[in-house]
Amino acid sequence: MNSADLTARLSIVIPVLNEATSLAHYLTVLSSLGEGVEIIVVDGSSSDASLSIARPLANSVIASQPGRARQMNLGAQHASAPALLFLHADTQLPRGAVEQILKALDRHAWGRFAIKLSGRSRWLPVVSWMMNLRSRLTGIATGDQGIFARADTFRAVGGFPEQPLMEDIELCKRLKRISRPACLRSKVVSSGRRWDQHGAWSTIRLMWQLRYRYWRGVSATQLAKEYHDAR
């Protein structure tokens, strides 16, 4: 893909770690979004072919130390558009996503999509509904909902805190000091593989325990270690 379009309207920042299996198809789909969309892939020291796969399919491919927050901040530093979208490599955008984001950012400083989890578990529709309701009530989004923001606002709040877990929650807290989010009803489709692999209810229980303990002041570093051990 050619270098970044000087007239880019939206920069999509995608943190990647060992996504070689599906990355080529994923980036090919994103490239169909058309002109004015800048695709930035930030690879967190993948041990597979993710980096070489991404190079011909993105406007910018950046090698980074691992850490999703670090990767997304680095991608935002290289973005040329006035609007940013942070997208996980297993999250698919709905039809018309670019125009929906830009329209929302005319009136809001930031926002997110609703989510639909895809996978085998029959509980995933319930999990999706719970995530959407929680996000609408609290104004806090998770990274797999496709968080977007005006680039100047994102930089003004200091971007993502470079912590190993809950970086999306902390970013939302920072952005909420400026405005409530635009809560788009269109749904991104994100992989429910962690619920499929570890069981829906055990994963729900783990996630709520981590959130509650984080709210009570347990450090993100400690929680990340427990999350890794639990997985």
From TrEMBL:
Gene3D superfamilies: Spore Coat Polysaccharide Biosynthesis Protein SpsA, Chain A. Coiled coil: none annotated. Residues 11-108 form the Glycosyltransferase 2-like domain. Keywords: Cell membrane, Glycosyltransferase, Membrane, Transferase. It is found in: Cell membrane. One of its GO terms (molecular function) is glycosyltransferase activity. GO terms for cellular component: plasma membrane. The keyword Aminoacyl-tRNA synthetase does not apply. This is Transferase 2, rSAM/selenodomain-associated. The lineage of its organism: Bacteria, Pseudomonadati, Pseudomonadota, Gammaproteobacteria, Oceanospirillales.
